[in-house]
Amino acid sequence: MSAAVTDSASLAPTTDIASLRGDFPALQQRVHGHPLTYLDSAASSQCPQAVIDAIGTQQGLNHANVHRGVHQLSERATLAYESARERVRDYINAASEREIIFTRGTTESINLVARSFGGSRLSAGDEVLITWMEHHSNIVPWQMICERTGAKLVPVPITDAGELDRAAFDRLLTDRTKIVAFVHVSNALGTVNPARELIGKAHAAGAVVVVDGAQAMPHKRVDVRDLDCDFYAFSGHKMFGPTGIGVLYGKENLLEEMPPWQGGGEMILTVSFDGTTWNHLPGKFEAGTPNITAAVGLGAAVDYLARIDFAALEAHEAALLEHATERLGEIDGARIVGTAADKASVLSFVIDGIHAHDVGTIVDAAGVAVRTGHHCAMPVMDRFGVAATARASFALYNNHDDIDRLILGLGQAVELFA
After folding, report:
1. Which long-range contacts (CB under 8 A, 24 or more apart) does 23-29 make?
2. Domain span holding position 276
3. Together in a domain, 43 and 59
4. Short-list 407, 400, 240, CA closest to 321
C-alpha cells in the first residue's frame, strides 16, 4: 500500500506522484480491448481504493441515519459523518466546523448562496459581477436571483488567451457591485484565476465573494483563510471522491445571518404550528437525511489528498500539460482553445473539419476517454466562435503514455476524415 493511502498521519507527504496510479482500480481495466486511458477527470475523477473501501465500510457495516439515534449503528454513522466534516474543515483551513455545509455538489452550493444570501441582500440597482469563463452553475443561479430581486448581472470579458480581462474587471467593479462570483480554475479552458488578488479588490469595493473551486481542489491546496473568500464551493467527485456530495464553505458570520433555503428535518430546533426556530450551523442548511455514505467517502478523499506533496503534484501535472501541448501540435488542423499563461492540466481543442463529438467517439474506440461538447460553459464557446471542443483533462494518475495514446487516436481521426 502506498504512503498516500496508509492510515499513518506521521508519514511525510508523498512526492512520488507516478506511484499513485496503482491506487486506482478503474485504471487497471481495458476498454474496447485497449488499456483504459482516462482523460476526463475535469468531469469526474476516479476514486482510489481507500475511498472505495471507506464507502464500502460505511454502507456495509455502519448504514444508519445520523444524529439523535442512540443505537450503536447510528452513533457510528454520526461519528463518521461529522469526522468527515472536521477533516474537510482542517484540509481547507476553515476556522470552524460550523463553516462547512455539506451539499450535493458545487451547483447546489452556489444555488444555496444565491438563493439565501443573494435573495436576502440584493435589490434593484445592485450588481453581481461574474466572468465570461464561468460554468453554467455560476451563471444561471445568479441570473435567477437577479430576475427576482431586480439586480443586474455583469459579466467580465476574457482575452483571446482565455484569461480574465483584468482592466475590465477593475472598471466593472463599482460601488453597485454587491457580489463577485468567479471560478478559481476554468473547467473549459484550464485558466487559473488570481483568486487572492480578485478577492482583495472585491472586498475593497465592499462586495462579498463567492468562488467556484470545483476544478481547483484536485490540483491545488486551497486555504480559505489565506484567500479570505467569503464563500468557496467544491464537489467530491472532482477530487477523487464520490458523486452526490459537495461542500459550501462560508464565513460563520455570513452564514449566521442568512435564512435557510430548504425546510424540513435537521434544520430546525423546534417546530409548532405557531412557528419554527432554526437549528445552529451547519444544520440550518442541511435539511433532510444527508448523503452520509458519500460524505464519508469525501472524508477519505480528503485524507488521500492531504498525504500528497502538492508541489510535486503541480510539477507532475505541468509536465503532462507541456507534453500534451507539444504533441497536439503534431496533429494537422488542431487548435488549442485556452492558452493562458497560468493553466491547470486541461487541454481543450478543436480539429479542423472534425466535430468534437466525432473526435471523442473515435478515440473512445482506442480506449481513450475525453470529454466533448460545450462543457457547461456555452459563453466560452461563443467567445471563441466554436460549437464545442474536445477536452483532455489530466490528474495525478495520468502519465505521458496516456497522452501518447490520445495523440495516436487523434491521428486516426484525422486519417479517417481526410
Report:
1. 23/48, 23/49, 23/50, 23/304, 23/397, 24/48, 24/49, 24/397, 25/49, 25/52, 27/397
2. 54-306
3. no
4. 400
The count of structural domains within the chain is 2
Q: Torsions phi, psi of 219, nearest 5?
A: -115, -25
Give the strand pairing for 368-369 and 389-393.
unpaired
Q: What is the pLDDT of residues 315-370, one digit of tens each?
A: 999 999 999 999 999 999 999 999 999 999 999 999 999 999 999 999 999 999 99
> Could you give phi then psi for residue 372, rounded to 5 degrees?
-135, 150
For 84-109, what is the mean pLDDT?
98
C-alpha of 62 from chain center: 28
Domain shared by 232 and 89, yes or no = yes
Contact of 99 with 250, CB cutoff 8 Å: yes
The DSSP H or E segment spanning 228 is none
Q: Check if 47 is active-site.
A: no
Q: Is the pLDDT of residue 167 over 70?
A: yes
From the list 408, 396, 372, 369, the residue with the least C-alpha distance to 29 is 369
Checking if the pLDDT of 416 tops 60, the result is: yes
pLDDT band at 68 (very low <50, low <70, confident <90, very high): confident
Q: Cα torsion for 211, 215, 219, 222, to the nearest 10°?
A: 20
Which of 257, 280, 306 finishes a domain? 306
379: phi then psi, degrees, rounded to nearest 5: -60, -30
The CATH number of residue 383's host domain is 3.90.1150.10
Cβ contact 128:154 at 8 Å: yes
Nearest to 199, CA basis, from 232, 176, 221 = 232
Domain boundary among 306, 332, 351: 306
Q: Is 109 in contact with 103 (CB distance < 8 Å)? A: yes
- Average pLDDT value over all residues in the chain: 96
Q: Above 50 in pLDDT, residue 7?
A: no
pLDDT for res 69: 85
Q: Which tens digit of pLDDT belongs to each residue from 356-367?
A: 999 999 999 999
What's the CA gap between 111 and 88, in Å, rounded? Answer: 21
Distance CA 178, CA 207 (A): 5
Structure pTM? 0.95
Tell me the DSSP string of 10-56.
TSPPB--GGGGGGG-GGGGSEETTEE-EE-BTTT-PPPPHHHHHHHH
- CATH of residue 146: 3.40.640.10
Q: Residue with C-alpha cell 510535486?
A: 312
Grid coordinates standing for 351?
480539429
- Dist CA 26 CA 51 (whole Å): 13
